[in-house]
Amino acid sequence: MLIIANWKAYIESVEKGKKLFAAAKRLSAKHEIVLAPPAPFLGILAHGNRSKVSFIAQDISRTTGGAQTGENTAAAIREAGATYALIGHSERRAMGEDNALVAKKLQHALAQGLTPVLCIGERERDAEGQYLAFLREEIESAFASLSQKERLQVVIAYEPIWAIGKSAAESITATDLTEMVLYIRKVLADLLPGRGASRARVLYGGSVEPENARALAQGSGIDGFLVGRASVEPDSFAALVKAVTV
Ligand code: PGA
Question: What is the reported pTM?
Answer without folding.
Answer: 0.98
